[in-house]
Specification:
Elements (H helix, E strand, L loop, with lengths): L1 H25 L7 E3 L5 E3 L5 E5 L9 E4 L4 E2 L10 E2 L9 E5 L8 E4 L3 E5 L5 E5 L7 E5 L8 E4 L3 E4 L2 E4 L13 E2 L6 E2 L5 H47 L46 E2 H11 L5 H7 L4 H10 L3 H19 L7 E2 L1 H13 L3 H10 L4
Antiparallel strand pairs: 1-2, 3-4, 5-6, 7-8, 9-10, 11-12, 13-14, 15-16, 17-18
Helix pairs in contact: 3-6, 3-8, 5-6, 7-8
Length: about 400
C-alpha cells in the first residue's frame, strides 16, 4: 500500500518537473525587441535602416549599430551585420521607378504607361502590355498600372469561351431574342421586331409604289400617243391627195468653164419629187489636176529625159536652172519645171481653174511624148484620163 503511494508521488514529481522545464523553454528570456547572443546575454536589435556592427558585451549595454550604406536597405529591426541590396528597375521588363531606394525601404518599381502589373506569386511580378478591346467589345474599365483593361461585349453580343458572339437566340445577355410571357394567355409571344426588319419593309413598300407610278405613266403615255395618231392620219391623207401629177420642176445643172466641159440638161421630177437618176445623160466634164498629172508623168518618163521633155514643151533654160537651184532633190526640181509649163500654158489659154489643167495642154503633152518615142507613157496617160 505504501509502495503504491510512493510511486504515485514520484510520478507527480516527475510530471511537475517536466512541466516546469517546458514552461521555462517556452517563456523567452529576453524582452521584445532584444535577442540572446551566443554568450546568453540579451542585446538590443538595430532599427530599420541600420545594421549591426558589434553586439553588447554585458547586461545593460547596447549593441553598436550603423546606418545602411548607399544602395542598401534594411526594412525591419534586425541583428544582421549586412544590409540588403536595393532593387533596380529594368526598362527591358517595362518597369519604371516609382520610389527610389532608401535606408529603410527598398526601391519601388511600377509598370510604364500602357502596361500593368501581373503578380506571378506573392513577391514576383511582371509588367504585361494592356489589352485592347476587340471590335465587338466595349471598354468597361481602362487599364491601370495595377490592373488590365476590362472589356465587355457590345449590345446584341454575348460572351462564349472568352469571345463575343452575336445574339441569335435567347441566351444570357440576349434578352431581345427571348419570348415575352403573357400572364393572361399563358403563351409566349415574340419579342420586339428587330429594326432591320422594319427597314426592309419600308424599302419594299417604296419600291412597289414606284413601280405602280411608272406603270401608270407608261399607260397614260400610250393612250395619249394612240389618240394623237388617230387624229393626224386623216390630215396626212388629205395632204397627199392634193399633190398633182402634172406639177414638176426642172433641175438645172450648171458648171463653170469652157464650153467643152459644160453639160446642161433638164430632168423632170416625178410626182413625189424624186429624180430618175438612171435617165440622166452620161456627161462628166474633164478635169485634170496639175499635181496629179505631173507626178504621173514623172513616174512614166525616165529621169534623164525629163529636161528634154520640158524643153520641148517650151520651158526656158533659165527657168530650168532656177528650178534646179531652188530644189536640191532631182524629183522636186523636175516637178517644178513641169509646173512652170502647166501654169504658163493655162495663162496663155485665158486662165485656168486653180489647180486644173486645160485639155489642149494635155494633148500637147501627149504629142511631145510620142515625138520623143515615149508612146508607152502617152498611152498610160490616155488610159488614166479616158482620152480616146
Amino acid at each position: 500500500m505504501m509502495a503504491g503511494r510512493l510511486r504515485i508521488l514520484l510520478l507527480l514529481f516527475e510530471f511537475t518537473f517536466i512541466f516546469a522545464a517546458t514552461l521555462n523553454l517556452v517563456t523567452p528570456k529576453c524582452p521584445v525587441g532584444d535577442y540572446e547572443n551566443k554568450d546568453g546575454i540579451c542585446c538590443n536589435k538595430c532599427p530599420a535602416g541600420f545594421k549591426l556592427v558589434a553586439e553588447c558585451h554585458s547586461e545593460g549595454h547596447r549593441s553598436n549599430c550603423t546606418p545602411c550604406p548607399a544602395r542598401q536597405f534594411s526594412d525591419q529591426i534586425n541583428n544582421a551585420f549586412q544590409c540588403r541590396k536595393c532593387k533596380t528597375c529594368r526598362a527591358a521588363r517595362n518597369e519604371v521607378e516609382v520610389s527610389p531606394c532608401r535606408a529603410a525601404q527598398n526601391t519601388i518599381c511600377g509598370c510604364k504607361v500602357g502596361y500593368y502589373k501581373n503578380h506571378i506569386d506573392s513577391e514576383t511580378v511582371e509588367c504585361l502590355k494592356c489589352s485592347r478591346c476587340k471590335p465587338d467589345e466595349t471598354e468597361e474599365h481602362a487599364c491601370t498600372r495595377e490592373r488590365d483593361t476590362v472589356c465587355g461585349c457590345k449590345e446584341n453580343f454575348y460572351r462564349v469561351r472568352n469571345k463575343c458572339e452575336p445574339c441569335r437566340n435567347c441566351t444570357t445577355g440576349c434578352s431581345q431574342h427571348c419570348m415575352l410571357e403573357v400572364a393572361t394567355e399563358g403563351e409566349r409571344q415574340p419579342g420586339p421586331e428587330p429594326k432591320n426588319h422594319l427597314l426592309i419593309n419600308l424599302v419594299a413598300g417604296s419600291v412597289v409604289v414606284v413601280l405602280v407610278l411608272l406603270a401608270l405613266v407608261v399607260l397614260v403615255t400610250f393612250l395619249a400617243t394612240k389618240r394623237f395618231t388617230k387624229k393626224k392620219m386623216p390630215t396626212l391623207s388629205s395632204q397627199t391627195s392634193e399633190v398633182s401629177v402634172e406639177s414638176g420642176k426642172h433641175l438645172l445643172i450648171y458648171a463653170e468653164g469652157p464650153p467643152q466641159s459644160i453639160c446642161l440638161k433638164a430632168a423632170a421630177q416625178n410626182p413625189v419629187g424624186e429624180l430618175e437618176l438612171s435617165k440622166l445623160p452620161d456627161c462628166v466634164p474633164l478635169e485634170i489636176k496639175i499635181p496629179e498629172l505631173i507626178y504621173a508623168v514623172l513616174d512614166l518618163v525616165p529621169v534623164l529625159q525629163v529636161k528634154q521633155l520640158v524643153r520641148c514643151l517650151g520651158v526656158k533654160d533659165t527657168e530650168i536652172e532656177r528650178a534646179e537651184m531652188d530644189h536640191r532633190s532631182c524629183r522636186e526640181a523636175h516637178y517644178q519645171m513641169l509646173r512652170v509649163w502647166a501654169q504658163k500654158g493655162s495663162q496663155e489659154l485665158g486662165g485656168g481653174r486653180g489647180e486644173m489643167l486645160h485639155r489642149p495642154l494635155l494633148e500637147e503633152l501627149l504629142d511631145k511624148l510620142r515625138q520623143m518615142h515615149l508612146g508607152r507613157a502617152a498611152e498610160e496617160l490616155e488610159t488614166k484620163y479616158s482620152i480616146q
